[in-house]
Specification:
Layout lengths: L9 H14 L3 H17 L2 H29 L3 E3 L5 E3 L1
Antiparallel strand pairs: 1-2
Helix pairs in contact: 1-2
């Protein structure tokens, strides 16, 4: 488990504390629930999904470049395509 420090406006903290108390849940659990809700919202957003797909493609390209650099340095005969598939030269 990670520890995260955040800064809240006094009014935000007061409202959050009252809501936690009224719902019978700890402040920490209230914050965790809010974060989980936000994660679920973002994860189901098609725009975020498209950005994730683009980032995955970028990561694959960078990994292929690094594999090719290693292959060049160490004289292996396998090189990779941008999707990470190996090809013989």
């Amino acid at each position: 488990m990670k520890t995260l420090a955040i800064r809240l406006e006094d009014e935000q903290h007061a409202r959050l504390s009252i809501l936690a108390k009224l719902s019978g849940v700890s402040l920490t659990d209230t914050i965790r629930d809010a974060i989980e809700s936000r994660i679920a919202t973002l994860a189901s957003d098609p725009e975020i999904a498209a950005k994730a797909e683009a980032l995955t493609a970028e990561i694959d390209r960078e990994a292929a470049e690094q594999r090719d650099a290693i292959a060049t340095l160490f004289g292996t005969s396998k090189r990779t395509t941008p999707r990470g598939r190996q090809t013989k030269e």
